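Appendix B, example 12.
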Amino acid sequence: MKSGQVVCYGELLIDMISSTTGDLTQSKSFLKKFGGAPANVSMGVSKLGIPVSFMGKVGNDPFGKFLKFTLDSHNVNTDNLILSDNDKTTLAFVSLDKNGQRDFFFYRGAHEAITSTEVTLPKNTFLFHFGSLTQTNNTAYNATDKLIKQAKEQKTIISYDPNIRESLWGNLNLARDVILATAKKVNILKVNEEEALLLANTTSLEEAGKKLFIPSLDALFITMGPRGCFYKTASFENYIPTIKLTPIDTTGAGDAFNAGYISLLFDAQKRIPEMSQAELEAGLKRSNVIASLTTTKKGAISAFPTQKQLKEALSSL
């Protein structure tokens, strides 16, 4: 019997994706898409058939109501989603280059106004997943820290994907300090290659892996786009390749990878140190494929593969 649920916490926002390739200054129209890294993860987890709740804060406005409706319609529990009458829903304007790489411009909103009095981690949480964008100011930081402490008290698996956005932090040195301090409190740290090099203050991915993996972690995951991922645990480390596809939009690929490894842990009802190397690597191979398939359409959620599409892609490897 599988027990508990996954809880994702953090930013829930509107991705306004440019309909034309290139710089935002050249954009003429935008596609409104569901967004926010932890929210994307919650949707991906739900699509993989796992019970999941989302905690966060949006405006009680048309955008916030659209986001809540989207979560509800994908079977993500929104009992702990706050619709604020005092704050507007966060907007992220996104431009894509010809390779599907992104550039962001944010209108900051409700996600960073969440307070510690507004959050409590459900008692049946199997895994708690969050990012760093609710750590960019004292108010939201305190809410996030409260949830981390509750997760540790409940012996919940804690998964952290900082998802660094320089324009929201303002100071990358501050971001590095906060994220590295938080990494000491979690079980799983997932970063992309650029973030790994930034946090480790190096130009070598191998050196970044050595610096970022600390004894308190169950695992470090570093995603590398079309080259797959690198992982390191106390017992194993390796590079895991992925399938080769032509990317259209890389938005949400890292979130899809997160949904993949979270589903691995929930389905197994295990922590990573309890897994064999073969079991972990099979799960990461699957996570890579989920992430790759997500890059073949615009928008994170619309591109997330169904279980049937995932099965077909895995069978072709």
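The chain is about 35% helix and 20% strand. The chain has a mean pLDDT of 92.
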